[in-house]
Automatic annotation (TrEMBL):
Root EC class: oxidoreductase
The organism's place on the tree of life at top rank: Eukaryota
PANTHER family reported for this sequence: 2-OXOGLUTARATE (2OG) AND FE(II)-DEPENDENT OXYGENASE SUPERFAMILY PROTEIN-RELATED
Catalytic activity: gibberellin A1 + 2-oxoglutarate + O2 = gibberellin A8 + succinate + CO2
Protein family according to the UniProt entry: Belongs to the iron/ascorbate-dependent oxidoreductase family. GA2OX subfamily.
Signal peptide bounds: none
Pathway it works in: Plant hormone biosynthesis; gibberellin biosynthesis; Hormone biosynthesis
Keyword Oxidoreductase set for record: yes
Protein known as: gibberellin 2beta-dioxygenase
Domain Fe2OG dioxygenase: start-end pairs: 176-282
Entries under SUPFAM superfamilies matching the protein: Clavaminate synthase-like
Species: Buddleja alternifolia
């Protein structure tokens, strides 16, 4: 008997798919921030994977659930209501379209500008149609996670023997630090079954342009990272933990010692995934170059000189999956 494959449903026809992978990432470095070994573990993880999981961070589950609950409340509004908070240019509500250059995914999201000087004036996270409660929770969350990122960057500087302990952390703690925050909602996609075993892309493969990003999600899986050998592996979700990802800027500042990790999110057919991500970037005028203290004698920079503003401008002209750093690599 000939089995005819079903036609791909129209609502997902324009979204990319990928081959399923059964590889579960069992080697994820788990860092307990109060462990004396933490610094070493973090640096090794940044070199090998550009990725690690932080536990025992002191952020209460109650607070995390509150923010997640407010996010769900927003995503449950009618499409017409949610559209009043968009389009994301670049901040606001977005549905399926990612960035401005034709990328799409099975995702809807809220993208907030969370620069510290805006947060301190309570002006951050102002998106039309967003509840006061959500705005305040986002501000509080970003301040908390930013502090944790600052501590982690100080541990990295210490472990790498960088004299000035705050050389990295000051970039995210600075009043002018250019950071953003996104709430992603990956709705369940029952039509996925029609894809004859292929997976639907929620958020396509990419690296983050900033210094470091922190992901926290509910219990629905979907996040995958790409290992050095090009294999994609699935990360087991853990709503009680934070997942740290090295961004392009930190790869440059360590002259390639750290890897900015390629990652993506797949859609689930039955469960919705809600994630929150803080992206810690430097001030716009900051020069992004290898730190002299990490370079060995005679070592040359792998990259041309650029500021975060130049990198960001260039990045926003690219497609999601492009290798954005390649334009800044020395030939
Ligand atoms: C990837 C990391 C962050 O989510 C983000 C994304 C941004 C966007 O969604 O507007 C970009 C993407 C991200 C990199 C390339 C450009 C810009 C979409 C896109 C195609 C907010 C960021 O800073 O860069």
């Amino acid at each position: 008997m000939v089995v005819l494959s079903q036609p791909v449903p129209e609502n997902i026809a324009h979204i990319k798919t990928c081959k399923p992978t059964s590889n579960l990432f069992t080697g994820i470095p788990v860092v307990n921030l109060s462990d004396p070994d933490a610094k070493n573990l973090i640096v090794e993880a940044c070199k090998e994977f550009g990725f690690f999981k932080v536990v025992n961070h002191g952020v209460s589950m109650e607070f995390l659930s509150k923010l997640e609950g407010e996010a769900i409340k927003f995503f449950k509004l009618s499409q017409q209501e949610k559209d009043k908070s968009g389009p994301p240019n670049p901040f606001g509500y977005g549905n399926k379209k990612i960035g401005a250059n034709g990328d799409v995914g099975w995702v809807e999201y809220l993208l907030f500008c969370t620069n510290p000087e805006l947060i301190s004036h309570n002006a951050s996270a102002i998106i039309p149609g967003i509840s006061e409660t959500l705005r305040c929770l986002v501000n509080e969350y970003v301040c908390t996670v930013r502090d944790m990122v600052g501590d982690v960057l100080e541990m990295i500087a210490d472990e790498m023997g960088i004299g000035e302990k705050d050389v990295l952390s000051r970039l995210v703690r600075d009043e002018k630090s250019d950071s953003c925050f996104r709430l992603n909602h990956y709705p369940p996609c029952p039509e996925l079954q029609a894809l004859s075993g292929r997976n639907l892309i929620g958020f396509g493969e990419h690296t983050d342009p900033q210094i470091i990003s922190v992901v926290r999600s509910n219990t629905t899986s979907g996040l995958q990272i790409c290992l050095r050998d090009g294999t994609w592996v699935a990360v087991t979700p853990d709503p009680t933990s934070f997942f740290f990802l090295v961004g392009d800027s930190l790869q440059v500042m360590t002259n390639g010692r750290f890897r900015s990790v390629k990652h993506r999110v797949l859609a689930d057919s039955l469960k919705s995934r809600v994630s929150m991500i803080y992206f810690g970037g430097p001030p716009l005028s900051e020069k992004i170059a290898p730190l002299s203290s990490v370079m060995e004698e005679g070592e040359e920079s792998l990259y041309k000189e650029f500021t975060w503003c130049e990198y960001k401008k260039s990045a926003y002209k690219t497609r999601l999956g492009d290798n954005r750093l390649s334009y800044f690599e020395k030939s």
